[in-house]
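Morning F.,

Quick status update on the modeling queue. The single chain you submitted on Monday has been processed. Sequence for confirmation:
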Amino acid sequence: MRDFTVWLSSFRQSIADYQYYTDFDKVYKNIDRIKVELNILNSLIGSPTIEEDFEKLLQQYPQVLKCIPLLLAVRSHEIYAIDADGEFTYNFNTLNLPIEQYKIFMKKTGLFEMLSQHRIQNLVDYITGVEVGLDSNGRKNRGGHLMENLVEGFLQKAGFVPQQTYFKEMYIAQITQKWGIDLSSISNQGKMEKRFDFVVKTPSTVYGIETNFYASSGSKLNETTRSYKTIALEAKNIPGFAFVWFTDGIGWNHARCNLQETFDVMEHIYNITDLEQDIIPKIFV
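Structure tokens below.
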């Protein structure tokens, strides 16, 4: 019997890898799409007659308009603004307002001041910084896959082969179709289309696997434990099938009671330390 308190004490604060923080390939790709237009806009830097120069640029190179929202760290091609002078929705794919109104936008947002006073040296460099900042919003999505990637690495290290002995993101219906295992008790008689992060197939058993990592607390943790506890109990009565859960993260410290309830009834629940101690060959037999 494993000791829950000892097991929980080994949970990690983070599993961020080196690619978690910024996706530079994505940043560079986004910049390349508008690099020409940004270099055209560079002509406005330090301009003493920036309003007139901006108007001439829009007349001669209207395509530079699409870069402007990004100068404000906005990805949308439309920006809404309201003040005592009125309310306007600016379109930056095509001029939907007089150029004079776009000049007002540039002035009131502070972009004219930033450019004309030479606050920056180069818009390509400036936008690189903006893109890095915006990309930080993608960390949540990247973080959601970190535990999956970690578990997959250990599966491969143990000799399992993708699309042969293990499969990613597989629905219950696909499992039933491929191996003829009746999982209707888990899917609420087919009313819920459950998807497992991984499925491992050995000569004797099909294993449905869930992975997650919680660095912070929240109501989702309690919902997860209740759901997985139900699946684990139902799985015990399904011949040739087993449910496995890999989880970790200090967020569980705030939901330890619910996690322990599941730990006490679930045979296959493991953390990263278990993975590092070669638990996989012992599970999947």
